[in-house]
């Protein structure tokens, strides 16, 4: 299987995304704060710079997702989950983190703040129709298949 090649530019002090294990789907993204820190107050959010810009092949996207340890231990998660980085975006990758806890959360330069998953995607064509095919579920929405 061919590996997807992601071209990356690094701002000063930025770190290359890194996989935590050989089978990890997500590469850790680190805060790039110029040797400083950033505090997210309780129940607030902040846009955290990573210092990286990427170029993805056409047909791929990058998904920015929470780190499970931050969510489980500190109630810190990514506000838009997953956040999508399109193949034609060339700006800096930033992560919107939200602090769901009652305590301030300090992010230091170089801290792992999120993970990035590279995924193939399809672009769809949309066809307007008068009706849709029937299914057993039908219009059953939230919770209709059980809790």
Summarize the structure.
It contains one helix and eleven strands. With 147 residues, it is mostly beta strands.
Structural features, described:
This protein is mainly beta. The chain has a single domain (about 10-120), classed as Deoxyuridine triphosphatase (dUTPase) (Deoxyuridine 5'-Triphosphate Nucleotidohydrolase, Chain A). Helices cover about 5% and strands about 40% of the residues. A 5-stranded antiparallel β-sheet has the order 2-3-11-6-8, with no helix packed on it. Strand 2 (about 20) and strand 3 (about 25-30) form a beta hairpin. The longest helix is centred in the middle third of the chain and has 7 residues, at about 70-75. The chain starts with 6 loop residues before the first strand and ends in a 27-residue tail after the last strand.
């Amino acid at each position: 299987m061919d590996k997807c090649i992601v071209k990356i530019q690094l701002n000063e002090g930025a770190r290359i995304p890194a996989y935590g294990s050989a089978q990890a789907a997500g590469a850790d993204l680190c805060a790039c704060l110029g040797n400083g820190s950033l505090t997210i107050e309780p129940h607030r959010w902040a846009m955290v710079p990573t210092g990286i810009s990427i170029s993805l092949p056409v047909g791929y996207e990058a998904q920015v997702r929470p780190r499970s340890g931050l969510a489980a231990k500190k109630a810190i998660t990514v506000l838009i989950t997953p956040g999508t980085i399109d193949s034609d975006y060339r700006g800096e990758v930033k992560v919107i983190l939200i602090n769901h806890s009652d305590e301030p959360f300090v992010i230091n330069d170089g801290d792992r703040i999120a993970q990035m998953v590279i995924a193939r995607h399809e672009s769809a064509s949309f066809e307007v129709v008068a009706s849709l095919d029937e299914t057993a579920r039908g219009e059953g929405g939230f919770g209709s298949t059980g809790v």
